[in-house]
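User: Modeling request: complex.
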Amino acid sequence: AQKVTQAQTEISVVEKEDVTLDCVYETRDTTYYLFWYKQPPSGELVFLIRRNSFDEQNEISGRYSWNFQKSTSSFNFTITASQVVDSAVYFCALSEARDSSYKLIFGSGTRLLVRP
Amino acid sequence: DAGVTQSPTHLIKTRGQQVTLRCSPKSGHDTVSWYQQALGQGPQFIFQYYEEEERQRGNFPDRFSGHQFPNYSSELNVNALLLGDSALYLCASSLGTAMNTEAFFGQGTRLTVV
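Assistant: Request completed. Predicted assembly structure:
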């Protein structure tokens, strides 16, 4: 069965520290997509990145970077020089396609608190 | 360009009642998916609508039903409410049903069942 595990329930760091959020997934599909979303207190899920199963290149976007390793079924997210505005719940998600439709399977999320 | 809008933002209902939640997709999007997010948990997929038909359904009882209108907006109906239905209900819209399409989420409807 498809599954996403985010073992870190909550992480607390001091501003300007680097922090890595872990994500491990399980799937039998050979083609799939992985996502990261940010959920601020307002509740809306904000899209951060999408990565397909055939592209293992790491990606960097400003202070954000992602490390995708199929060998360990992991898709970890690193924030460099964290800021208070990064405080939120972060979700890793896996797409599952069935009959030309798809759904997102989310992990349980990691709450990040960045202290000034 | 308006994003995904949901109404109402908050709702309090009594056990056994019925509730209807509404979602307007992002302009240009034709697919709507609904998710339930219990407190402290990740969102759980309820169902997806495309071309006014339910295309895929998650592990939710028949008390959960939906509809998509010709203008692509959607409703989620929950009958015979239980205390356990208390959650944040999120609507996501996308263009098409391909798995690589980006889903845009609304701010959700916070449902409290008492």
